[in-house]
Amino acid sequence: MNFSLLFRMLILVIISVLFTNFILENNKIRNSIISLITPLTKFLRLPYPCVFSFVLCFFNSTAGKSALANFYKNKEINDIDVILTIVMSTFSTVLGEYLLTAQALITIAILGLKLGIIYLFLNLFSSFLQLLAGVVYIHKYQNTKTINIEEIPLIQKPKGNAIKRSIKILKKTIPTIIVTFFLINFLLEIGGYKYLNILFSPFLKFFGIPGMSAIVIIAQLIHFSAGYTTVATLFYSGTLTLKQALITLLLGSMAVITSIYLKYTFPMYIGLFGKFGIKVGIIDYMASIFSKFIMIFFLMFLL
Predict the structure, then answer these.
(1) What is residue 144's DSSP assignment?
(2) pLDDT of 301
(3) Long-range Cβ contacts of 65-71 (<8 Å, 24+ apart)
(4) pLDDT at site 166
(5) Domain range spanning residue 53?
(6) What is the per-residue pLDDT for 52?
């Protein structure tokens, strides 16, 4: 059992919650972020708290979702707002990871310029599809009015001390994450990954990739760099074509997404949103997987 993952998870959540609450307490920082998100609101047509969370996810996904949970608990946004924001914020999260971390450069360094850039584009575009789907839904079914900057709830300083507000959230979030983490890992320890492997194996032939591509998917589950190194070796040795390498990487990313959701995302959503977090997690997971499938089918039939 990877206790270092649990430790990092808890530290990240604690820092993120504190970070979010201190931002909300600082009028200057809060208003600066609001001035940046105002143009986005006109396009997204979401309530300002949702757009605030969307932008914050660019810098830190957990912080953005923690902020969203705060607004939801304060009844400033409803269930649909939360679901739409989380699904759409995948784009800002991925974009932030590419621009604010070394992940994009590491990907290109391992996979090579051509394979690396195409894979990064497909990954980013799949998240853009989630953003686009959310925007289409909002423009068709939602009727969010345009709000003047003075009407934004974030302008007003939140009640209470930032540390006290954070402790109130963490008192419920931390125990929930710990219990769920041990429960999920226990299920995986007794053979959960065997079932995942059985689930993915029958699809390999359908997607037109050789059986050894399963090695890449397994390696990617261990660490993204291991998966990238494996597929690069197979690609540059001529074992995999460009199309097969890209499909393998996307399938591997789907396996990684599944693993992350089981170990981290679902516990986090349940900790932040309670029972509603289960619904949020399922919809967010399905949206991420479906967008990846679209990219794979594009490669299979159009490339």
Answers:
(1) P
(2) 84
(3) 65/89, 65/268, 65/269, 65/272, 66/13, 66/16, 66/17, 66/20, 66/169, 66/272, 67/20, 67/23, 67/24, 68/272, 69/169, 69/272, 69/273, 70/20, 70/21, 70/24, 70/158, 70/165, 70/169, 71/153
(4) 72
(5) 3-302
(6) 81
Q: How many Cβ atoms are within 10 Å of 204's Cβ, its own excluded? A: 18
Q: Tell me the C-alpha distance between 151 and 154, whole Å.
A: 9
Whether 51 contacts 89, CB under 8 Å: no
CB 291 within 8 A of CB 127: yes
Cβ contact 250:111 at 8 Å: no
Q: Sign of torsion, CA 266 270 273 276?
A: positive
Give me the amino acid identity at 45: R
Report CA torsion sign: 279, 281, 287, 290.
negative
CB 255 within 8 A of CB 196: yes
Q: C-alpha distances in angstroms, 287 versus 214, 268, 281?
A: 23, 18, 10
pLDDT of 272 reads 85
Q: What is the pTM of this model?
A: 0.69
**Which regions in the chain score pLDDT beneath 70?**
1-6, 8-10, 12-13, 16-17, 19-21, 23-42, 99-102, 142-162, 169, 172-173, 176-181, 183-201, 203, 212, 223, 225, 303
Max Cα-Cα span within the chain: 62
Domain count, the chain: 1
